[in-house]
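pipeline/complex-builder :: batch 7 item 3
reading input block
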Amino acid sequence: MKYDLKDLVPIKYPIVQAPMLGVTTPGMVAAVSNAGGLGSLPLGGMAPDKARMLIRQTRQATNRPFAVNLFAHPLASSAVDTDQIKKMEDLLHSIYSTYGLNFERKRLEDYQFYNHTHLLDLLLEEQVSIVSFTFGLLEAESTQILKEKGVTLIGTATSVKEALLLEESGVDALVAQGFEAGGHRGTFLESEPLPQVGLISLLPQIVDQVSIPVIAAGGLFDHRSVKAVFALGAAAAQLGTYFIAADESAASQGYKDMLLKSNETSTQLTRAFTGRWARGIKNSLMEQLEQSGLEFPAYTYQNSITSGLREFGKTNDLPELLSLWAGQSAAKTSYGSTSQLFKDLINKIQNDTNPIF
Amino acid sequence: MKYDLKDLVPIKYPIVQAPMLGVTTPGMVAAVSNAGGLGSLPLGGMAPDKARMLIRQTRQATNRPFAVNLFAHPLASSAVDTDQIKKMEDLLHSIYSTYGLNFERKRLEDYQFYNHTHLLDLLLEEQVSIVSFTFGLLEAESTQILKEKGVTLIGTATSVKEALLLEESGVDALVAQGFEAGGHRGTFLESEPLPQVGLISLLPQIVDQVSIPVIAAGGLFDHRSVKAVFALGAAAAQLGTYFIAADESAASQGYKDMLLKSNETSTQLTRAFTGRWARGIKNSLMEQLEQSGLEFPAYTYQNSITSGLREFGKTNDLPELLSLWAGQSAAKTSYGSTSQLFKDLINKIQNDTNPIF
């Protein structure tokens, strides 16, 4: 059985813009959806009020469907290692000092984290029609409520096992995230070694095991790579890094420039920035954290500990202080409007000798 | 410019059987070449007499062209760390003891290594027509001599930079080896971090930078993955793991069984067996060596130190004592004759809705 994402959601082209927290804006989402693709609005870890505002901003800019993306990890970290956190805070304190900044330590009880459970009511109120999520499975009850309201659910898998669990949980489709992908790995079976499977191997092995549409993600950037994933059985292609240098992106100019100067070996997987494995361009902050020899506190503690410095880097356009999330095809990124980048991709696909759509 | 390996070497199908030292036999090479593909005979690290015998055995079984594969690393390891070697020998000594085996320490001067330079005369004498190689570049003089004799040269790259160096050195084609590939990484720019780029990202980035045919390798196992790499610009697809469980394979039954029982996350990259990065199925020996905390002596010392134990594992069919080289699509392997496996692949490609050949 060959699936096409167009049969599941009313879009013109089976091309998904990946949700990229800190990069994707309502303007980017709307531009992709208006151009006939599926935009994805990242709401992971967000407080409900902010999420509501972003959904409404996106709605104002498009009347086409778009997905909202949630972080579906459990909220309570099972083992908070306060000593680990203290050592990491000490390191950050010393890095802050070199920039003349003051690092404010938090009490453990002052960390405030949000996950998908905080946003479910909001999504129903705002009548969101497509929900994608990463870092886990939705609870059976949440799945049931959303499906009763006709919401399309899209999970994220980095292994066949995760794909099977997602299918069993009742999702309508899933993203197969290859090793090449930028940003966080969606991995949620954390008791096992991190799956690091190249998309060309992972995708057909997932497609052969599940009976729902599979969206391919990781390293995609042009008509050739989109055609390749369709040959491998994908129902759609998801591109993230491809849109980071877009006009509508919230990435700083320095981040965008780093992408365009990068090559296929510029990125690496790291837990340094957030405590979760993610792929980004190597820079000073990544190296300094990696070389500290310290253990990284679990997500979302580490994310919170480093966020102030990364905000400073963003505000002051210091790319060496950012998490420069990017996939292995980052070097192929271009500047331009989201709409133009999307059209360029569609044109290349349609001008191919044997176009797939 | 779109290349096809068939325009470079007289084969019927642009499908290459990867050279797999310890697995590929003359019978496997001949079966692939007889079926219209390009068989590759691994001669890396071999003494000339043995290499000559294997070439002649292959010739007796086919009059179709096949490639011979060399290891093109420099011979002299720049820094032999005798203390590192001694500690590793101590560990092997203790592992040997648990199997009632006697580990014989070698004097450094008794290690005997061969590389491509020992085989060049032989290749000319035997009038070999296609030479592929990995782990390096051929010297300008060797390249010139081989090319004057009309030999087709095929190098191996794991990054764009390596691909450009190979092209500049005068090869006629190159293999782009993705992160998914089983066995040794062909990496030769060893002063830099190991390139770990997924094929879907690496292949088009290499294709866009060079003006010679690029053969895609890593994770390929069926008509879909072959079609995918052609969409990405490959001139041919190279499959290795796909043939490991073949009747003509020298792999032990236990090794073959481990492949068929594996899944997409069963393999990992390790330097434990040979001192060079290679991908294989995780097993006891890999874990024991990895968890020893010892530094691994450089290739080919470490290869030599562990080879006796791995030979014992092979002879006694103890897969936990082998280097179980395999790519990330190992789970898709089948038993059967090489000829049948090759025909199955071609049939699947030709029965595809939009066949590529």
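note: Residues 76-111+250-333 of chain B form one domain.
queue -> next item
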